[in-house]
Amino acid sequence: MIRQTIAALCVLAFTAGGASAQAKVNVDLDDPIGTIRPEIYGQFAEHLGAGIYGGIWVGPDSPIPNTDGVRDDVFAALDALHVPVIRWPGGCFADQYNWRDGIGPREERPLRVNVTWGGAPEPNAFGTHEFFNLAERLGAKTYLNLNLGTGTPAEGRDWLEYLTSDVDSDVVRERKRNGRDAPWKVDFLAIGNETWGCGGNLSATAYADLYARHVTFAKTPGEQPVRILSGSHDGNPEYTDTLLGFDSVRSLAEGVSLHYYTLPTGDWGNKGASYGFDVGQWDSTIVRTLKMDRFIGEQLAIIDAHEFDKPFDLYIDEWGIWTDDPNPQPGHELMQQSTIRDAVAAALNLNIFHAHADRVAMTNIAQMVNVLQAMILTDGPNMLLTPTYHVFEMYSPFQGAEALKVSVDSPVHGTGDDAYPMVSASAARTADGKLLLALVNASPDAEQSVDLTGLGMTKASGRILTAKSMDARNTFEQPDTVQPMPVSAKAKKGSLVLTLPARSVVVVTLGK
Asked: Which of 189, 311, 383, 496 could hold 491 in an S-S bridge, CB 3.0 to 4.6 Å?
């Protein structure tokens, strides 16, 4: 019944010609923005709740099918996303992590307490070899966060030598004894995380001194990783400005991070429920999600106010919806349901990132499995794909494509501070010349017709993700409630008009 309902919605969604359009989308085909770096679709895996243990890692002796301890079902789902990069081991956890706890025979690794996240036991069964082997199997780049808060420059230096060196040394011999002959590659490197908060409550000036000291000794052979500073969140843009005021810092980094989470209520003490919400919280979520564009603009203006003798980019290495779980479970801290609202918000963010493809080098949604706006949820042997997962999978053809400038003339939902454009769009040209278009109808209750006639195209084909309620979600009992369906349309009488149902995300290839 659910599949039939969604299929009926898809028939409604693509109407060629007919009634006058409410929104217009135009694409500048001659002035590309820049390449959409695959890393914009980056993931984040922190030792938090069931994000690692039970989510990614079950151990080689688990009855849950696995390869070298990594769940086969989760791996297959991630592999289908073409995950470009994974950030690890945190997050706030990184600033209490000693890399030596996570190497060597697992039965000999120390049992620690995860003081950052709920005082849970940390068995260190998933460590350096497990993470880098996972990334290698997925073909994903690695984004390593070094411990600035409780670590030392020597610890960071030794970890990088262990990981990346092939010169004979005691540390390299140790790696080989632990089962890895060839070195791995560290593609991106951060030293410190949220240094204004959980990473030490440091002023930007204090962090600048510590960063310069740590990064001076953070060397790898050959090509160096891209070095990323811990920058601002949405409430303290001046942190980045102060940080970049130091010549030594600018010369020792290639980018700076930005963190922004969408809270439906805007209140960290009562963020709003992940499901069972009303129209007001739908609207406030969309309004707050769209603020990402302004925060990116502020950070880029700050970067441009400083002088660099090399490219210097923005890295949004934590973003996503953060809600309260109406039914929290012990051991599953920060697990939240992902609804069609999360899918719409994810697509809105991706459209914003595409519009800044020339300056936003990487983003990492929080987080990959079982934590916050996750791609995947697990419960024992069971696994499901969230609506957010489906958006990332639908958008995957944009990886490596050339972003194009898009203008949208859209009706507005709501009034005053609660007003937002109903239709969002982004477009790109792939390496083989295909024209991709992503459309979002963010309205909670109204369909929207979108006029594409100005593009000179006569047909569209792709997929749509929608649902018949604002908080529709996939559960372990009904894992396929929200899933993409195929759609196609052809122009009639010279016009191509797509009618999108409320709460929908569409990705199509356009042609003549």
From this structure: 496
